Amino acid sequence: MVELISNFLSSSECNKLINFYKINQNENFRYNKSFPLNLTEIINNHVIDNEQHYIINCTKQKIDNILSLKTNVPFKLYNAEIVKWPILSDMHYHHDANGTEFSCIIYLNDNYIGGNTMINDKIIKKKKGSLLIMKNSDKILHKVTKNIFGVRYTFPLWYGNQHYFLSKNT
Questions:
Q1: What CATH number does the domain containing 86 carry?
Q2: Higher local confidence (pLDDT), 42 or 132
Q3: Is 14 helix (H, G, I), strand (E, B) or coil?
Q4: Looking at the chain, which runs of residues are DSSP E strands?
Q5: 114: left (phi over 0), alpha (psi -120 to 50) or beta
Q6: Which of 14, 5, 21 is nearest to 125 (CA)?
Q7: Backbone dihedral angles phi then psi of residue 33, each to the nearest 5 degrees
Q8: Mean pLDDT: which of 15-19, 36-40, 164-168 is highest?
Q9: Dist. CA 82–CA 5, nearest whole Å
Q10: What pLDDT shows up at residue 77?
């Protein structure tokens, strides 16, 4: 199942999350050609602006509410990031980690060329503030095409089958 929800976040909320990334970019790391900022670590280890913290937590809660209507399998957020995709960045076709019940991507901007999410050779229309949900993304082949102009920002969240991840940690 793949679903795209338009206007999930407002333009203002997206801009605040991009600004949050820029303020905390010294905490990012390199992953292939992109630069993720782990939100869990930032939230747990730093004093951050209350409004930004509120937006991050409200966004997660809104997604939790949507996902709870789509499955009766217990799931848990296991990673959330804001990712900066500079010019010439991309990601090859891949499946997400085993046990990934849902992958969600929020597009924080759309003023770049390229950088398209592709699922099984189909381009997903990018629009600032929209939310892409992929159920069972550990079985869905997807990639990001080369970003050829501008900087792309996304807010991906990965939710796992709680039973799977509990069994892996025992």
A1: 2.60.120.620
A2: 132
A3: helix
A4: 2-5, 35-38, 75-85, 91-94, 100-107, 113-114, 117-119, 122-124, 131-135, 142-144, 147-149, 152-161
A5: left
A6: 5
A7: -110, 10
A8: 15-19
A9: 19
A10: 86
Long-range CB pairs of 39-42 (<8 Å, 24+ gap) are 39/80, 39/81, 39/82, 40/79, 40/80
Q: Is the pLDDT of residue 163 over 80?
A: no
26 by Cβ neighbours in 10 Å (0-12 / 13-18 / 19+) ranks as exposed
The phi, psi pair for 7, rounded to 5°, reads: 55, 40
In terms of Cβ atoms closer than 10 Å to its own Cβ (0-12, 13-18, 19+), residue 63 is: buried
Q: Among residues 23, 30, 62, which one has the least CA distance to residue 46?
A: 23
- Across 64-74, b (16+ Cβ under 10 Å) vs e yields eebbeeeeeee
Q: How far apart are CA 134 and CA 102, in angstroms?
A: 6
Locate all alpha helices (DSSP H) within the chain, ordered by sequence: 11-23, 39-45, 50-68, 162-168
| Maximum separation of any 2 CA atoms in the chain, in Å | 46
Question: Which structural domain range is residue 117 located in?
Answer: 2-168
**Domain tally for the chain?**
1
